[in-house]
Amino acid sequence: MRIFVAGATGAVGRFLLPKLIRAGHEVIGITQSESKKSIIEKTGAKALVTDVFDREAIQSALGESQPEVVIHQLTSLSSRNFSDNTRIRKEGTQNLVDAALSAGVKRIIAQSISWAYEPGERPATEEAALHVIAEEPRKSTIDGIVALENAVMEVPQYVILRYGMFYGPSTWYEHNGFMAEQIHQRQLPATEGVTSFLHVEDAAEAALMALHWPSGPVNIVDDEPARGIDWLPVYAQAIGAPIPVTLSNSNAWERGASNRKARQEYGWKPLYPTWRTGFTNSLNPL
Q1: Considering only CA atoms, which of 31, 78, 84, 81 is closest in space to residue 58?
Q2: Is 230 within a domain?
Q3: Cβ(49)–Cβ(40) under 8 Å?
Q4: Looking at residue 285, what is its pLDDT?
Q5: 10 found inside a domain
Q6: Cβ-Cβ contacts under 8 Å for 80 (sequence gap 6 or more)
Q7: If you count DSSP H runs as helices and E runs as strands, how many of each does the chain have, helices first?
């Protein structure tokens, strides 16, 4: 297949492009930065410099490439620019979808999140509703996700990958990332709130497999949703940080997510099935 990847140099994209190339696909990756073209080209993919906020430029890129599939992995999370990230989810996604439709693309695969569900007592399945009545600041995140998913559903075939909280290279949770710094400084307490984690290589593998999945959302998370009081001490130990302070509070929407659909119906199997071993095996400083 000819595949157009937006977000080709991001945390997921850097794992995804080599997987797509090894699988025999022709890949076009986009970047905003001329200096990052080589990252894409070293994988064997073609690199285009373009901006998803530039409607004419993204229309031109898709028109020139004529892909069969678009994979949307764009975020602005590495810089913690949340307003820009919401803009990507709303405006950037719509521009990408409009360009894809103009180019005759029939399938899109897009990155979403698994912690956008409404409050509940158990890990969320894909049948749970998104938390559209959330209050700020969470509301801005949910609004962005709703806009992204609605736009993606305009394409005839679509797979929405509701990813867990990323860890691994180039994420907030890598050994020298933002969250690691927060924990070293004892700024993050361990609470009862539940998180579902995901290694970025497992995220990339799901995107590769989703080329053949049916339309709809699917949770891509590891096997063990975990309370902060359980995972945070393990993470702290893995990065050599002090054991965090423990608090008993949590948010009602911190429920984690179930990967039953991805595992049992679609055959996805994470290389890192649990954060317990994943943190230790992938986060220690090199």
Answers
A1: 31
A2: no
A3: no
A4: 43
A5: yes
A6: 172, 178
A7: 11, 11
Domain that holds residue 23: 2-166+198-221+256-271
Check which CATH number belongs to the domain holding 62 and give it: 3.40.50.720
Tokens encoding 173? 């949770």
pLDDT tens digit sequence for 90-112: 999 999 999 999 999 999 999 99
> What's this model's pTM, rounded to 2 decimal places?
0.96
Question: Is 281 part of any domain?
Answer: no
Alpha-carbon gap, residue 25 to 46, rounded angstroms: 11
Please tell me the total count of domains within the chain: 1
Alpha carbon distances (Å) from 136 to 118, 142, 185, 208, 249: 14, 10, 27, 34, 19
Q: What is the pLDDT of residues 116-164, one digit of tens each?
A: 999 999 999 999 999 999 999 999 999 999 999 999 999 999 999 999 9
pLDDT band, residue 79 (cuts 50/70/90): low
